[in-house]
Amino acid sequence: ENIFDRSRMAPKTPIKNEPVDLSKQKGCTPERNPITPVKLADRPQPDPWTPTANLKMLVSAASPDMRDREKKKELFRPIENNEQSNTPDSLQYDMVDDNTVDEFEKQRPSRKQKSLGLLCQKFLARYPSYPLSTEKTTISLDEVASILGVERRRIYDIVNVLESLHLVSHVAKNRYCWHGRHNLNQTLKTLQEAGELQYGELMAFLQHKEQDWEYKFGERKKETIPESQDRPLLDFSEPDCTSASASSRKDKSLRIMSQKFVMLFLVSKTKVVTLDIAAKILIEETQDTADHSKFKTKVRRLYDIANVLTSLGLIKKVHVTEERGRKPAFKWIGPVEFPGKTDEPRGHSPMSDPLPRMQRGACAPYQIHATGKQRFTRHASFNVAQPCEGTRRKVSSEPSSPHQKRQDEYCSKMINLAAVCRQKIVEDTRTCATETLNSGKNPGTTPGTTSPLSLLPVPGDFDFCVNTLPQAVFPVVQADVPSIPLQNGVSSQTLHPSMPATSKTENGKPTLLPSQPFLCFPSSSLFMLCGDLQEDNLRETLPTTEDVGNKSAEAPAVVLPAACQECSSHKCTSPSAPAEDEEPAAKRQAMEQSDVPLSLVVPKKSFESPKAESTPGSGCTSAVHLEGFHLDLASPAAPLAADKDSTRPLDSQEREKRLQNKDPDEPSPGKEHMYKENASQPFLPQYVYVQPTAGLSSCNFLFSAKQAPSAVSLTASQLPSLSVPCVMVPSAALASFPLVCSATIASPVSPVPDGSFSAAASMNFSMSSLASTTPVFVGTTAVVNPKVPPAPSVDHQQPTHPTLRLSPVLARSCTAVKLDSPMCMGHPVTLLKLQQPSSTPLTPKSIRPACHEAFFKTPGSLGDPLAWKKNEGTQTRNASSVQRRLEISSTSPD
DNA sequence: CGATCCCGCCACATT
DNA sequence: AATGTGGCGGGATCG
């Protein structure tokens, strides 16, 4: 049509037209003149004539597209339009033609007029930036679309971005709730924190990996733009999904991308992010994929996002001149410092809050408290990893020099990787099972990714994760996977964030990455009681012993980010106040421990809590599941373990087998490993770590020495071999752990160590921190505990689901994801992630560390019988993390 | 010619 | 099945 018109026009003259003409002529725009549309008839008016046009007309009558357009023009570009049109057009003589033409033009405003940015401005103009809290404005997509004269699709683009920043929230079909910018700072802050965490980890990770990576984008590297690139990656996972189910679908990549994009800015020192860098980071796929096409697509999306952000006044377009030339980039012009949490009153506990809040997106303006629904829905929030300061490194803050640039590039790469990984992880989380499998194939694919789940922050994990998960989780895949780190990593990551970067995966060894401080633990079973220690120990040990066992969960918890031991200590330990104190001690211990190579390898068998194991189907892993998480993950864990182990694949395999078999009996050797520190006493953190072997997986735990005694004894019994000072705790113990913090522990776990645990727990963590979030868990955990102990045997039967367990504490931090992977086993698997609240200052961190995942294959593993199963099962899947938690807690009691 | 990015097909999700 | 959502990328337009 257009052409058509044009052609006409052209001949006639290029007149562009005046408004007047337009109006007149345009039939379209009836408003002005009603003139009839003669012209229309005559003219080829596009709109009118076309069927669509007619519709439009009609529509426009109500809410006219045409009008809108015109309005837009006028509104937005009144000036321009006028100028343009007038000037040039005016020249023309041909009135008529002009008219026609004009109309066209009007009708067809230039692209700019139709730009998303403009549209967004219009959109924003309709709502107050800071609406009264009292008034809740709801936005009807249809209505807005018609008013603005655009297709609804466009509105989605805008709203999705706004939603990512919590300016609006999706409340119902076609309805969004306008929150305005009240929460913006909070959101940004959260994103910043999340970004840092991620970034940090990533960085570490990436660095590590860099080599591996080839940059696909090689050229792009340059992106290096100033620092911006670096950072972040974030994961974000936002959640928001309003609907509980929300998470479903791919996750909206646009939302996630938007958050990530924002994170990049917030993380970046320069506040300038080039498009390519951002695109790279956002490309899930990793570099590998890097298809050009993908990259292109991402860039397109970024433009969409950038347009909206620009309209919000958060960024502006700039060009970065690099060596090579100028690259398009965006500069953050929004707020940079976020003083405390914003102001908002919210009282949530710091720990989890941030994310949640965001996610919640309640209608209420700031507050995000969500409405019930949303809360649930939200999945993971951002996971942030913790920020490790250490990690950050120089990355570059300033780009200018070439060196820097290089660094930047480097960073960017890393970032990308990290990002990729994360995404993968996320995805994994969701999809995990399947994905995993896939992952083998496609490393990066993550479509939308998103996992609602939390991520693990842990930096290093990737590798681990990768390996581990895949393997562990999905046996099938595993085989393939192992080799591929990234891919694996992705998946695995999802599971455990924590993993250290260590490369071990591939090797199978747990190696430590030089760069990374963290250790990876394969098995989920491990737990760290003490923050610090763990790391060191872990590293060393882990690899060895655990490999398997620890798995992600633990790792994360324990490990934390590679980069930061400190962090870890903070984080890890942090949870427990004591930890700090302990740290030193812990470290020592760790050292000591390290010596111990895994000391324990005990077969879990018996040890595993019978209960759990016993339960067949559930597999569950232990209590944990029950708890809250239910993480179906177990599998992941397992996989992880396995993978991780790359080193010990065997173990994993064994596990699996066992799982299947469930034999609790089997002592799988090795499965349990305890790390202990010698220290038993002091505070230290000794951990005992148990790895679950096959079914047992759930059982493993680490305990601190202190408490250990009792615990130990218990464990010991189970584990014969242990000589280690450490105590092993059954899953239950774990439960207690977390719980420990809270009181819960005590009771529940009774069997073993409760007391001990509790003691320990108390020692280690002060949990209070945990608390906020934790609380729930705790409860749960407690519940769990009981179960745990018992279930020693697993069933064969339900082999399927592996479950992870988290310590309660962890749980809180962690998110569990469940994977269903049909592929995998058919069992749903759940993964846990650890979140680290990085930001949260608090203790929580420590907690996080703690998390461990347990996975068990269903079969026998743990089984906790009942509860777990329940939880695990579907619920887990469905439920959002929050829900899960809730559920868990509820369930746990059982 | 590269940077932008509109447009809308189409898949997936939800109802 | 209808409808809501939103990924995605062709290809047009801008500069």
UniProtKB/TrEMBL annotation:
Biased composition (Polar residues): 81-90, 873-894
Keywords for the protein's UniProt record, in alphabetical order: Activator, Cell cycle, DNA-binding, Nucleus, Repressor, Transcription, Transcription regulation
Region (Disordered): 1-52, 75-94, 223-248, 387-408, 570-602, 639-675, 862-894
Gene Ontology cellular-component terms listed: RNA polymerase II transcription regulator complex
Cell compartments where the protein resides: Nucleus
Source species, domain of life: Eukaryota
Coiled-coil regions, chain positions: none
SUPFAM superfamilies: Winged helix' DNA-binding domain
The keyword Transcription is annotated on this UniProt entry: yes
Principal subcellular localisation of the protein: nucleus
Regions of compositional bias (Basic and acidic residues) in chain numbering: 223-233, 642-675
InterPro entries: E2F (IPR015633), E2F_WHTH_DNA-bd_dom (IPR003316), WH-like_DNA-bd_sf (IPR036388), WH_DNA-bd_sf (IPR036390)
A Pfam family that the UniProt record links to this protein: WHD_E2F_TDP
Keyword DNA repair: no
GO molecular function: DNA-binding transcription factor activity, RNA polymerase II-specific; RNA polymerase II cis-regulatory region sequence-specific DNA binding
UniProt record, GO biological process: negative regulation of DNA-templated transcription; positive regulation of macromolecule metabolic process; positive regulation of nucleobase-containing compound metabolic process; sprouting angiogenesis
E2F/DP family winged-helix DNA-binding domain span: 111-180, 249-334
Xref: PANTHER family: TRANSCRIPTION FACTOR E2F, TRANSCRIPTION FACTOR E2F7
Family named by the database record: Belongs to the E2F/DP family.
Protein name as annotated: Transcription factor E2F7
Organism: Ceuthmochares aereus
